[in-house]
From TrEMBL:
<dbReference type="Pfam" id="PF00394">
    <property type="entry name" value="Cu-oxidase"/>
</dbReference>
<keyword id="KW-0964">Secreted</keyword>
<dbReference type="InterPro" id="IPR017760">
    <property type="entry name" value="L-ascorbate_oxidase_pln"/>
</dbReference>
<comment type="subunit">
    <text>Dimer.</text>
</comment>
<dbReference type="InterPro" id="IPR011707">
    <property type="entry name" value="Cu-oxidase-like_N"/>
</dbReference>
<keyword id="KW-0677">Repeat</keyword>
<feature type="domain" description="Plastocyanin-like">
    <location>
        <begin position="441"/>
        <end position="562"/>
    </location>
</feature>
<dbReference type="GO" id="GO:0005507">
    <property type="term" value="F:copper ion binding"/>
</dbReference>
<feature type="domain" description="Plastocyanin-like">
    <location>
        <begin position="174"/>
        <end position="334"/>
    </location>
</feature>
<dbReference type="Pfam" id="PF07731">
    <property type="entry name" value="Cu-oxidase_2"/>
</dbReference>
<comment type="similarity">
    <text>Belongs to the multicopper oxidase family.</text>
</comment>
<feature type="domain" description="Plastocyanin-like">
    <location>
        <begin position="45"/>
        <end position="156"/>
    </location>
</feature>
<dbReference type="InterPro" id="IPR001117">
    <property type="entry name" value="Cu-oxidase_2nd"/>
</dbReference>
<keyword id="KW-0479">Metal-binding</keyword>
<dbReference type="GO" id="GO:0008447">
    <property type="term" value="F:L-ascorbate oxidase activity"/>
</dbReference>
<dbReference type="InterPro" id="IPR008972">
    <property type="entry name" value="Cupredoxin"/>
</dbReference>
<dbReference type="InterPro" id="IPR002355">
    <property type="entry name" value="Cu_oxidase_Cu_BS"/>
</dbReference>
């Protein structure tokens, strides 16, 4: 209608400019221009009874569901999430995993690091820009709430007119998880107890929120006869319907509390094309190994016998878990009935204790040609993090360089910005360990560690190398896989190795040509992983093991950089510790 009523007078350019300005205002009022740039979500977080694996228990939901709603946006969109805490007796915070929060470090969502927790009955507004296309996650970052069901996906597409270096017909999203029947409170109490009570292996594996626990194995009779019901629709297997001949982009993520996983689709190859938001030089796998916090995109072509359906499976690797059944789903060839089971038994998983294929996958992940971000040729600082299990005053803890991490009552970002030097330890943690004398393959005679809430202060814009060094735990012959996640940054993965890192010779083997950039990476048993990143994002950023119980037990650090460049903190992130009374919703 506007165009039909328009009369342009060539000599009157000002009228044309005025018309275009009014046209823009009209679009804004109609919402079209705004909606292309701002994505608004209103969420309520609360406990509800659900049966993800057929056993009914309290689960943390978002708007009634777990996994929560998928955030879908385009690169450079602004995301606004108004989060109401309906948990009644619990605080909450949500971390936007893989989103760098450039210019908004206070909305990273890490309780104790970047914000005070969101109190019961209150509403908190997160607002940030998704500056890069890719596959990301969100999840609780308060206590161990993530494993209670508070998680979901963030899918960021390219701007209009841009294309990806691979083609596919359909885009699908799958989150893998493990599942415990004990509440996070019960688990946390055991981890903090003397004597120590380990959480054990999970009862089930979930594929996009659905699993199958064998109800007949319940050892304790329940007062509620229906507490475990194999016919509950909540635990119907995940089904992915595929049209024969079509290619599917599967965005596969892991948010396990403990387990490293393998993922496969019976009889189908998967071509890996993306990892943590960065394009990968394509390579083909039958089993995709995932560690908690990682995201991948794989291309799968529905090119097998279309008259039958196929198993989708997830299995635990890296740990012996004989009582945890595999996660099962069905790859359904249209028009077969979705409930028709495959005619075969699920394919056998990789050997849980064979690290060779997992190391091979780690080495295979390189940046795609044409999309390589070349790392700086050298670093300004090298920090070696020895991953160990220790004791402190009788409690079992996880430590870095014999220091176990503890959160202060006042979040670091606020304390650093407001120069509240008395609220956390001003002595920085160590940059290394006794490299010459420490034997990574034995149980140490002296297992004692110390606790600290000090931070690593990084020079702004400096280049930092992190060497993750794995070692034996307090159990003989055991070295666990630890997936480490860095907030606020991506890092270059320069290399992996077995045994003790040699700081004189191993750097000569670094891949400085086409290293992948990621935000989460494993350090394999008795091995090392070398990372490099630029400390170019002002803020306070957590770097921690993404296994829930390990971070709870102290396996993490905090980096502080460019604090003088951080803008004015919103009062909504305050209200705890030394900031009590400063909170404004």
């Amino acid at each position: 209608m506007i165009f039909s009523n328009m009369v342009l007078i060539p000599k009157c350019k000002s009228r044309v400019i005025l018309f275009l300005w009014l046209l823009g205002i009209t679009a804004l009022l109609n919402g079209s221009a705004v909606e292309a740039r701002i994505r608004r979500y209103k969420w309520e977080v609360k406990y509800e009874y659900k049966s993800p694996d057929c056993l009914k228990k309290l689960v943390i939901t978002i708007n009634g569901g777990t996994p929560g709603p998928t955030i879908t946006a385009q690169q450079n969109d602004t995301i606004i999430v108004e989060l109401t805490n309906g948990l009644l007796t619990e605080n909450v915070a949500i971390h936007w995993h893989g989103i760098r929060q450039i210019g908004t470090p206070w909305f990273d969502g890490t309780e104790g690091v970047t914000q005070c927790p969101i109190l019961p009955g209150t509403t908190f507004k997160y607002q940030f820009v998704v500056d890069r296309a890719g596959t990301y996650l969100y999840h609780a970052h308060y206590g161990m709430q993530r494993e209670a069901g508070l998680y979901g996906s963030i899918i960021v597409g390219l701007p209009d007119g841009k294309s990806e270096p691979f083609t596919y017909d359909y885009d699908r999203n799958i989150i893998l998880n493990d599942w415990y029947h004990k509440s996070t409170y019960e688990q946390a109490a055991g981890l903090s107890a003397i004597p120590f009570q380990w959480v054990g292996e999970p009862q089930s594996l979930l594929i996009h929120g659905r699993g199958k626990f064998n109800c007949s194995t319940l050892t304790t009779p329940s007062l509620d006869a229906g507490i475990c019901n194999a016919t509950n629709p909540d635990c119907e297997p995940f089904r992915l319907i595929a049209v024969p001949g079509k290619t599917y982009r599967l965005r596969i993520s892991s948010l396990t509390a403990l387990s490293a996983l393998s993922f496969q689709i019976e009889g189908h190859n998967m071509t890996v094309v993306e990892a943590d938001g960065h394009y990968v030089e394509p390579f083909v796998v039958q089993n995709l190994f995932l560690y908690s916090g990682e995201t991948y995109s794989v291309l799968v072509k529905a090119d097998q016998d279309p008259t039958r359906n196929y198993w989708i499976t997830s299995n635990i690797v890296g740990r012996s878990a004989p009582n945890t059944p595999p996660g099962l789903g069905v790859f359904v060839y249209y028009p077969n009935h979705p409930r028709r089971s495959p005619p075969t038994t699920p394919p056998p998983p990789p050997l849980w204790n064979n690290t060779d294929p997992r190391l091979a996958q780690s080495h295979a992940i390189k940046a795609r040609q044409g999309y390589i971000h070349t790392p700086p040729s050298r670093s300004d600082r090298v920090i070696v993090f020895l991953n160990t299990q220790n004791t402190i005053n009788g409690n079992v803890r996880w430590s870095v360089n014999n220091v176990s991490f503890a959160l202060p009552h006042t979040p670091y970002l606020i304390a650093l910005k407001e120069n509240l030097t008395h609220v956390f330890d001003q002595t920085p943690p160590p940059d290394g360990y006794d490299y010459q004398n420490y034997d990574i393959r034995i149980v140490q005679e002296n297992r004692n560690a110390t606790s600290s809430n000090g931070v690593y202060r990084l020079n702004f814009n400096s280049t930092v190398d992190i060497i993750l060094q794995n070692a034996n735990s307090m159990s003989l012959g055991t070295s666990e896989t630890h997936p480490w996640h860095l907030h606020g940054h991506d890092f270059w993965v320069l290399g992996y190795g077995e045994g003790k890192f040699d700081m004189f010779n191993d750097p000569k083997k670094y891949n400085l040509v086409n290293p992948i950039m990621k935000n989460t990476v494993p350090v394999h048993p008795y091995g090392w992983t070398a990372l490099r990143f630029r400390a170019d994002n002002p803020g306070a950023w957590a770097f921690h093991c993404h296994i829930e119980s390990h971070f709870y037990m102290g396996m993490g650090v905090v980096f502080a950089e460019g604090i003088d460049k951080v803008g004015k903190l919103p009062s909504s992130v305050m209200g705890c510790g030394e900031t009590q009374g400063l909170y404004r919703p």
